[in-house]
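Entry:
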Amino acid sequence: MIAGMQKLGYDVIGYDYRSHADFMNELLEIVEKRKPRYVFTLKGEKLPPRLMADFKQKGCTTILWLTTSMMQDWMLPFAKANDFVVTNTEDTGIFFAKNGVKNVKWIPQGFDSEFFGITGKETDKKGAPYAEAAMIGSMGYPIYKKRCELVALLRKNSVDVKWWGPRLARQWRNIPYFRSGVHRAWAGKEVYMRDFADVVRNVKIFIGQDADIPISGRYLSNRIFAVTGCGGFYLGRKTPGIEAAFEIGKEVEVFESNEELLEKVKFYLENDGRRECIASAGQQKVLTQYTYKQQVEKIFAWIKENHQE
């Protein structure tokens, strides 16, 4: 995200408040010395609302970008303390607006090609695919049960499926998933950045399943941008947010039931050309319309428009 701001010509001071014990005084000192026009917070779970008030007294415009779909008690008071709030979950934005947050807008996250080592011209597939279908991320209780269920379903139907991420926790609530062999599909490690891109590019189908959190409005996990941006074929559970950004069947694919998932996995495993065409179109969409530079540009355009009013 910082790189996206810099590409727009902003001079950016990065600061990780999670790794500093005296973050309040250090942030106030930075603001006092550098006098930034904007203070842009990504999440902000440790920052007190009064700190935003101090920034505003020093002439800063405060911006909060919440990129999680799980509501927590600290979020509403902190959102109210900011001048502008951006969320990638439309439900959260509606809740904020109904509870006194004045300037709130739904803008999903984006893709940073440099983070994943992607140029858009890759030809580095390594022969035999790592798997026919794959998932990346946490599995099991408390909020990733559906991912386990999908892995078990694909295994039961003789699909070569693997998943990369933290080891499935050995707790009694995960016993059904051990019994169904989910742990046997584990690839043995977590993957990030270039390793993430390597996996995505060398499996045939990436199965998209977000956390088990009820969402009714538009929502886009950053995972869909990461997979498509890296050139992977994305087959994900249908949400309103997907249709807002991608053409279904042309840039990504979706499923709404286990039966539809199995049908589409079978179809796209048998139709390499169609699958690769969709993956290429999805990557082109992300690299041309959903980079972090473009998403940050949308945020600042909205803020400047509000300032003019």
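The domain at 2-110+291-308 is CATH 3.40.50.2000 (Rossmann fold).
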